[in-house]
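Let's do one together. I've listed all components of the complex below, 505 residues spread over two lines.
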Amino acid sequence: MTVFRLSLGVALAVVLLFLTLPVLAIFVDSSPAELIGSLDEPGALDALWLSLRATAAALALILIVGTPAAYLLATRSFRGKALVITLVELPLVLPPAVAGIALLAAVGPEGILGGAVEASGIELTLQTAGVVVALTFVASPFYIRQAIAAFASVDRTLMDASRTLGASEARGLFRVMIPAALPGLAAGTALGIGRALGEFGATLMFAGSFQGITQTVPLAIYDRFSTDFESALALSAVLVAVSAAILLSVKLAQGSEALGVAPR
Amino acid sequence: MAAAAALLVLAGCGGDDGEQRLVVSAASSMTQALTDCGPDFDGATVRYSFAGSDELAAQVRQGVKPDVYAAANTAIPEELHADGLLSAPVEFATNELVIAVADLSSISGLADLTRPGTKVAIGSESVPIGSYTRELLARLPGDAGESILANVRSNEPDVRGIVGKLVQGAADAGFVYATDVEAAAGRLRAVGLPPALEPDVTYAAGVVEGAKQPEPAREFLDGLREGGCADALAAAGFGTP
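Okay, and this is what the predicted structure of the assembly comes out as:
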């Protein structure tokens, strides 16, 4: 029995060491002051600003379209629903390079919808708009999946009560469902932001890499890897800090969800 | 723990089964040629890692030890040699910088690239194809170089990225090696540059200090100048230094 417990402890120690050591190593070589100092160059700041803008735009699209879609999937049953949910979740497990190729094949200049995209006057490849498309493609399943779960776990009687009192479904969605599902939606939002900020392969293949236009933080890190390791470390440190903050906010959101249930 | 280590070895396809494995880090532009000649190498089983010369050099600096390092220029191998990380570099091939355009494109020279709205893809500053391109643009008379740089829409980490953007129609023109256009024959067309402006493109390679297979590594290096891989490079359109 003690051997069993010991091996459990060893396994946890190995997991912790393996997962935290590389992350900690980013901060070991250089002091915080040095890290911040090497961020002070136009390329790094442009990358941070672009990542922020593109992620915000992708997030807006995901929330506006993804929320009602998730609500529909959570509250209706229909034939083929499982298939629809699987299709929506597919980008979760797609390798980024596949996402890049898929976007090119679909909406790239030579893609099946390339003509339509061009006719509409929108340029995606090698443009910031293309970055937003890539981020939206890879990040939206993270939000939608979480949102479906959040809506599905809302007590049905709440919505029924609001309908009985004469509220329309739309009013019910905004006044009852979204507030009740908010912790889950917030957690999904945070996961989506995390995925969008970290996107690399699809962005490089579909949108290219140009400072201030398409070079997001992960692309800037790759660009600096060979020439300016210090600055690559600094940008990586920023992403680690932001990602940790995001994860923490997910935990807090889920914590308040637990709290919300507790007082009953 | 032991099981985890065993799994890692399994993932690495076997480990110590007596077979010698030679790891070669080579510039992306040699992907086709070296892949073709790799199986013919007698000394060992060759495993390639293709990427931008600068990325591969950065890996060596971070302690990644391939046996052979082959770059698309002489500068990076010289630097590695000066830092004690590579044997004295050997020049083994030359290439040519060209403008690559889609097969049916109307672009016929540098002047077309200066037109506002032309979408140009080049290599990023740190990768050899990018520095050759900037070297060329700096030699152009007047503000032609500036105008072309203003049309650059993507700084790609290696030549494969540039070729991909051209083949997919995302960019109108790009600066790549003549051999890249040859490899994408039928989809891309090369537009030659005035010989006087062409940068001197020479490839150099060396044995990485601390290589696990120094002997086969040296043989491979010789083969790049004379032998199976030299022939494959010539067939792919590379010249001899």
